[in-house]
Specification:
Layout (H helix, E strand, L loop, with lengths): L1 H8 L4 H18 L1 H14 L4 H26 L5 E3 L5 H5 L6 E5 L8 H4 L6 E5 L5 H13 L2 E5 L5 H11 L3 E5 L9 E6 L2 E6 H9 L3 E11 L2 E8 L8 H22 L13
Parallel strand pairs: 1-9, 2-5, 2-8, 3-4, 3-5
Antiparallel strand pairs: 6-7, 8-9
Helix pairs in contact: 1-4, 2-4, 3-4, 9-10
Length: about 280
């Protein structure tokens, strides 16, 4: 199915593929009860919208998620997208600096696609889920390799942490999501949409221990062929204990994430309730 989808993108217009997908979204919304409920709760409780408006945005949310998946396969087929944003030059700014950097991603927008479009100025290790289909992993490897990016699959024994730690020790770039725990139960509480939420402690702890300059990075879809990169440097206090610095970094990240999620609520793809 994945190979057939890539083949279709060689000759079918992108908007036509979106249109075909849209006909299946209502069925998907009905079948995927867990995702539907999580999306609806987000719009009702966090965005404060009414029932009808929230229900409509559940459809838009699922439709945008489908487009995010299809855009990846479009890139696999050789389709090109444009990237805008005031912070794209960040990659060039990192090159001459002999310090480690962390790019803290999230499940807002389509961050992965930036790795297919922008060549990093120095080696980057990016954390990826290792349970994807072979077709996806092979295409990721091919495109990331062209952009100076190496995938680091999540391991049950947490050995991926040692790989990322070594990369930062070598003043490379490390990219990983910071809004969902991957392989670890350690969390840090932050105020998020008016209530305490549990964020994974790992990314922030790693950044503090390695004294890495950290950025919150988002890539959101502006139109069918245009993405926008949003990059904000995160603040870490110079004084205080390591735990206090981790808490401060996580708090700053949560504040930026909330602001971006409010601006692009239909591209919030974190389909679980971590306010529990």
């Amino acid at each position: 199915m994945h190979r057939a989808l890539i083949w279709l993108f060689h000759w079918m217009p992108l908007r036509a593929m979106y249109g075909i997908m849209a006909t299946a979204i209502p069925v998907y919304v009905i079948v995927d009860g867990r995702g539907r409920k999580a999306s609806y709760r987000f719009f009702r409780r966090r965005m404060g919208w009414g029932r009808v408006r929230s229900a409509w945005h559940v459809f838009l949310n699922m439709f945008n998620m489908g487009k995010a998946v299809m855009d990846r396969f479009a890139v696999y087929a050789g389709r090109e997208f444009a990237m805008t944003g005031d912070h794209i030059t960040l990659y060039n700014a990192l090159k001459p600096m002999e310090t480690p950097f962390m790019l803290l991603a999230s499940h807002v927008g389509n961050y992965e696609i930036s790795g297919y479009m922008l060549r990093t100025p120095k080696p980057m290790k990016t954390l990826v889920y290792s349970g994807e289909a072979v077709t996806v992993m092979n295409n990721r490897m091919r495109l990331f390799g062209d952009c100076n990016i190496e995938m680091v699959p999540v391991k049950e024994d947490l050995s991926h942490i040692f790989v990322l730690n070594s990369a930062l020790a070598a003043n490379e770039i490390v990219s990983m999501p910071a809004d969902r725990a991957l392989g670890s139960s350690k969390t840090v509480k932050c105020r998020f949409f008016g209530e305490d939420a549990a964020f994974p402690a790992g990314p922030f702890t790693l950044a503090v221990r390695r004294e890495a300059t950290s950025f919150a990075v988002f890539v959101v879809k502006e139109s069918s062929k245009v993405f926008r990169a949003i990059v904000e440097e995160l603040r870490v206090p110079e004084s205080g204990s390591a735990d206090e610095k981790v808490q401060a970094l996580a708090k700053d990240y949560a504040a930026v994430l909330e602001r971006v999620a409010k601006a692009y609520p239909d591209q919030w793809f974190n389909f679980f309730d971590f306010w529990k």
